[in-house]
Protein: histidine kinase
Organism: Kribbella voronezhensis
Amino acid sequence: MRARRLLGVVVAAAMVPVAWLLTPELGVVNAVPTAVAGCLALAAVVSWPAPSAWIAWAGTLGAVTSLAATGRVLAVYGSRPGEQSLAGLEVAGLLVLLGLVARRARPWPAVVVSTVLGVAEAAWILRFMPAADLLTTVGGVFMWSLGAVVAAVAGSYPRLAAARLRQSVSAARNSQRLHLAHALHDYVAHDVTGMVAQAQAARFAAADDPAAMRTALERIETTGQEALTAMDSILDMLRDDADPEFGVRTAGFKGLAAIVDSFRRESPDRSVALVANESVLGELTPEIQLAATRVVIEGLTNVRRHAAGARLVRVTVEPSPPNLLLIDVANDHPGRGRPLLPGRASGRTGLATLGERVRQLGGHLEGRPDDNGGWILHCELPLASGNSG
């Protein structure tokens, strides 16, 4: 890297003797911009990847020198037709600098310097055109500007492709983080909340009922094993061949039944009912099945956290005309009792995130008091998702 930078400095410094050598052939007004543009372009190439600021300054110097020469020729001579072969090296240098600036410089310097380089390259032909009418002059400048457009596109394309790649990688990482966050909230938090509830029950039963305490500890062990299994499944999501959306726990009727059974085992003093249409659940798309499972998990988790006094919990998953799947998780407690985790701020982020996902699928989610004085989490989903977003 250091050797390339040093070589670039040497090549850039060679513009002085090169200009001196070209002066007899081109005259000083053409020799200087040709030497400057050619040597700076070659220096930028041999020292690549040069710092973005260096590339921008090199492009600026090449463009300003070329425009100054063009302005002097037009002001003093009006036009100067003559030999263009060696002077064409200036155009090549300007185009190389334009492409490198568009590729490497920072955004705003890239726009400004590329524009100035494009103007300098297009105006170069005016030094060699004989006096002509305005239309001919504009046509000549336009034709030469096409080279600048090609150089700008060639330099900008890798830059834009790299930016799109960074955005894609960032979006993929964000998507994976969201999948992991959803899985942790829906499954691990569900099981850990059950463990906390059982631990609290065991604490109260410890002194008076050793048998009840043993039962509670067994439930904690079972729930802990389920949490570890869920964690293993979440870790499996990080494998390259894993499906991050459906790798945690089976959805559908069996998955719902297992979730409700786990909740029932943790809460033997509650009446927990599941009413679900197994045939309909089996025909749902994977997105709707997963969303329905998440709604049930969220509802049961909130019962643990906010309705510890509930004695009746009912989970209903059934179709409804015209083309809806209704999901209700209802309990007979208003949910205003002592929270399960009094030192933990809720924030309701899980419900809000789930509601957004349901809306993306074309559904609706709300939590509200029911007609019996309890609380219900109500969700409506289309039987076929219109947007898997």
